[in-house]
Automatic annotation (TrEMBL):
GO terms for biological process: amino acid metabolic process. It is an enzyme of class 2 (transferase). SUPFAM superfamilies: PLP-dependent transferases. This is Aminotransferase. The lineage of its organism: Archaea, Methanobacteriati, Methanobacteriota, Stenosarchaea group, Halobacteria. One of its GO terms (molecular function) is transaminase activity. Its cofactor is pyridoxal 5'-phosphate. Belongs to the class-I pyridoxal-phosphate-dependent aminotransferase family. Its EC number is 2.6.1.-. Homodimer. Keywords: Aminotransferase, Pyridoxal phosphate, Transferase.
Length: 365
């Protein structure tokens, strides 16, 4: 089986090799500082005893899992610490597929490109449900697609790339659909700390043996390189997920987990609120400049991405390359996220030069 190289890498490589200055708004790599407590925890770990430099428990450091379980009001035995949300998603989707409960995976359109990639890798068949113009998801459309061949429903809230936040009623309906068809709902909540709407509520508040919640600290603590995420599985699925995790990865990084644990225990809510305030300012500045460019755009209720559409300039890979060469701004082509927004271009607001990038776009168009 052949896998397509994610377009993220192609665009980033093209921007890196450009002959001019380029504002990189391709990937969701935060540019802001992690919590000071995370740095402190890593420094402290450097002086640990030699036994602390060896393998940690495969499912994650016990203390970290206990901290997560207490915060999320779940049993510690349900928590599997993973190599970022990427592995957490893989474990959940793989568990859904290995139950002989169907071979179809329902995804939204637009969609984070790694979900269909994992679907192909797991030999599943993707079924796409279009979201509404504002990015919201109508559960009735999911119900229309779902069948006894449905193994898994994957949703991301707050959403990349639309910025939509799915409310509790939507998540309750999705869990109910999963239960009706013996499927697993995989709720990817990696942007849970970036809700600007006040509507976000974790799927963990919905008790069901048919839902798995995955997330990571990559975005919330601005540490995408640390690769510390986790999944919360129902009791009936956690043992199989832990075994697959052990066979694929053996375990995760001990110093990264220790640093995250120290940060969780010693970082107050102001850190996250200050980050959200900064992002709100970026969103305002970027969308104001898009108004000047005459663009249509989405204003995110969550996460930190903006989709923009420019007249007679569809979101193809070639046009993204053109913007890099002629405007000095790198975004992601809408066609990378499916067919529903293939006229659009996605910009990640993870650079202090976001306002400058928008001004360049306004000048260009």
């Amino acid at each position: 089986m052949e896998y397509d190289e994610p377009l993220f890498f192609k665009v980033m490589q093209y921007a890196a090799n450009a002959d001019r200055d380029v504002v990189d708004m391709v990937s969701g790599n935060p540019d802001w500082e992690p919590p000071q407590a995370l740095r402190d925890g890593l420094h402290e770990y450097a002086d640990a005893d030699i036994e602390d430099f060896q393998y940690p428990p495969s499912e994650g450091l016990r203390e970290l899992r206990e901290e997560i379980a207490e915060r999320r009001n779940v049993s510690v035995d349900q928590v599997v610490v993973t190599n970022g949300a990427g592995e957490a998603n893989y474990l959940a989707m793989a568990r859904a597929m290995e139950r002989d409960a169907g071979d179809e995976i329902i995804l939204t359109d637009p969609v984070y490109p790694y979900y269909p990639g994992k679907t192909t890798m797991l030999d599943g068949e993707a079924r796409f449900v279009p979201t509404e113009r504002d990015g919201s998801l109508d559960p009735a459309k999911v119900r229309d697609v779902a069948s006894d061949d449905t193994a898994c429903i994957v949703v991301n809230t707050p959403n990349n790339p639309t910025g939509a936040v799915y409310g509790r009623e939507t998540m309750e309906e999705l869990v109910a659909i999963a239960e009706e068809h013996d499927a697993l709902l995989v709720a990817d909540e990696v942007y849970d700390h970036f809700d600007f709407s006040g509507r976000f509520e974790s799927a963990l508040t919905i008790d069901s043996e048919h839902r798995v919640v995955v997330t990571s600290y990559s975005k919330s603590m601005a540490i995408t390189g640390y690769r510390v995420g986790y999944a919360v599985f129902p009791d009936s699925h956690v043992k199989a997920a832990k075994t697959r995790h052990m066979l694929v990865n053996v375990t995760g990084s001990r110093p990264a987990q220790q640093a995250v644990l120290h940060a969780l225990r010693n970082t107050d809510a102001d850190y996250y609120e200050e980050t959200r305030a900064m992002l709100r300012e970026r969103i305002d500045a970027f969308t104001d400049a898009l108004d000047a460019a005459g663009a249509e755009y989405s204003r995110p209720d969550g996460a930190f991405y903006v989709l923009a559409r420019f007249d007679d300039f569809p979101g193809t890979l070639d046009n993204v390359y053109t913007l890099i060469d002629e405007a000095g701004v790198a975004g992601m082509p809408g066609e990378a996220f499916g067919t529903a927004r293939d006229e659009w271009i996605r910009f990640a607001l993870v650079t202090p030069r976001a306002e400058e990038a928008a001004a360049r776009l306004a000048d260009y168009f």
